[in-house]
Specification:
Blueprint (H helix, E strand, L loop, with lengths): L4 H37 L21 E9 L6 E11 L2 E14 L4 E17 L2 E9 L2 E9 L3 E6 L2 E10 L1
Length: about 170
């Protein structure tokens, strides 16, 4: 039996398409049945995550905080450390230190030192903080800002162009 080359090509193309169609429809229906079985056997998942309803805990102000006071957008910083030591109601007390460098002419070098220091008074309402640095440049510097568990940030009262940021140590 002799086949014409065109009939072999047509037979091959038709046979290939038929087999491909049969395999596609079989594997698709098998996949659909498998998915349906899995959906039927699936049970709803209960949430294991419970929301934290203990919102009464607020960050503590007492401790050692270090940071800077500077003009907004300026890279010249005044390095300040505040130490909040005691609490009476919503009022706190402590000390502050202005850290910097001082030139030592005898050794021809710069030395890290405390340039100024004084007493600190602080008050708190919720997470709003007011800090009074007595003796800062022979005056009282008042800062107002917000307290988070690890940061106090805000601005200088009377001059909002100056900002501050302290991190808890």
């Amino acid at each position: 039996m002799i086949f014409h080359p065109k009939s072999i090509v047509v037979f091959t193309v038709v046979n290939t398409l038929s087999v491909g169609f049969i395999l596609t429809s079989l594997s698709t229906s098998g996949l659909a049945e498998s998915v349906q079985r899995r959906q039927i056997q699936r049970s709803p998942v209960q949430s294991q995550i419970k929301p934290n309803t203990n919102l009464g805990i607020s960050p503590g102000l007492q401790g050692n905080w270090k940071g800077n006071i500077n003009a907004q957008g300026d890279d010249v910083l005044t390095s300040v450390e505040i130490i909040v030591t005691s609490k009476s109601g919503s009022n706190y007390q402590g000390t502050w230190k202005h850290h910097g460098s001082k030139y030592n002419a005898q050794q021809d070098s710069w030395e890290d030192t405390i340039l100024q220091q004084g007493s600190l008074k602080a008050s708190r309402q919720g997470n709003e903080i007011t800090l009074e640095l007595d003796g800062f440049n022979s005056n009282k510097l008042v800062l107002a800002g917000l307290l988070t568990p690890s940061k106090i940030s805000g601005e200088v009262v009377g001059n909002s162009h100056f900002v501050f940021s302290f991190l808890k140590q």
